[in-house]
Amino acid sequence: MEILEIFKTTFTDMNIISAITSTMFIILLGYYCRKKNIFSDQVGKMLSRVVLSVALPALALKAFMKDIDQQSLAEGMGILIWGIAIYIILIIVSKPMYAKFKGDKEDTLRVLTIFGSTTFFGIPIVGAIYGAEGVLYASIFNIGYRIFLYSYGYIKMSGLKMEAKNIKEMFLNPIVIATFVGLFIWVFQDSLPQMSVVAADGTASTVAFLRIDQTAPWLFKPMTYLASLASPLAWLAIGATLGSVDFKTAISDRTSLIYSANKVVLVPIINIVILAILSLTGILTMSAVSVGTIVIMMAAPTATVAAAYAISFDKDALLASNASLLSTISAVVMVPIWIIVINMITSTNLF
Q: Which UniProt keywords apply (predicted)?
């Protein structure tokens, strides 16, 4: 397919265009509401809590309510492997990336670069573009993220050994619980006790009793409503947060600008290059949806937990705050570009 044809296909795909405009417009709405004091300075935090505690767990669990086959299982396992491998790679690569910085500044920049807001920022956008399939793969990809964020990230920033409270946070987080429960149902659905269900067209079939999308629609429907809140509420929260901060101070920090470029541009490029090599050599092949999901997740801005580590352990807290702000602005600008780039790359059948 020629480049011009790829451009034409991309810019006439209403799913892509609608996902981009929805993201941008709702973030801008949140920003406007905060600037006009329609939203108080607490709205961003409140919306974030709702998204992280209710909407995203529902979205993650809902994504696993689908049939499984060998292809989707193999795809999921490939994403799980890559979701662990990429953090090991970034731990290594981030060292020379910030070689000229020393001490706390180097540690903070490395941790903030390795860990992005894949859950709060990435998954809602993935869901808007790729639907349930994208959310399913994003949830599997995030397993490695959680493991390294609450182990390596904590140890690096605190200088202490792993504490029990972080292990608890790692495994008892609502999103993690929903992900593992959903993953269990999805993978083992053929081995679980079965129930007979009758479809709307009168066709009878047997499914795992935990497939509540078919066995308990009265329970699945409210979960669907909650899941649908994830994207708009997350985008409103991002806009409201941006409306509460001072851009001038942050944008004058050259280190934060360098970090933002690394986080939302260089890290996704690293993923694309390595995944392309793995695909061409046949070591690890992924679908276009999987690659797109991974790139969007890795183009996410600073993870809230990573920034909180820097502030809590006094590891250049001002840098972490500025970096978080600038990377969020950069990600809002770059994600639409990455969506177009991903579509162009996958149109070449590289993946």
A: Cell membrane, Membrane, Transmembrane, Transmembrane helix, Transport
> Residues 7-26: pLDDT tens digits?
666 666 777 778 778 888 88
| Beta carbons of 284 and 212 less than 8 angstroms apart | no
Residues in the chain: 351
Domain residue limits, the chain: 3-347
| Cα distances (angstroms) measured from residue 262 to each of 29, 132, 238 | 28, 29, 21
Q: CA-to-CA distance for 168 and 183, rounded, in angstroms?
A: 19
Q: Which residues pair with 195 in a beta bridge?
A: 207
Residue 196: helix, strand or coil by DSSP?
A: strand
Write the CA distances from 1 to 182, 185, 285, 344, integer angstroms: 38, 40, 21, 10
What span, in angstroms and rounded, lies between the C-alpha atoms of 181 and 34? 37
For residues 179 and 143, the answer to whether their CB atoms sit within 8 Å is yes
Segment 94-123, tens digit of pLDDT: 999 999 988 889 999 999 999 998 888 889
Rounded Cα gap, residues 245 and 326, in angstroms: 11
Q: Where are the beta strands (DSSP E) in 199-331?
A: 204-208
The Cα diameter of the chain in Å comes to 67
Tell me the CATH number for domain 3-347.
1.20.1530
pTM of structure: 0.84
CA distance 188 to 76: 14
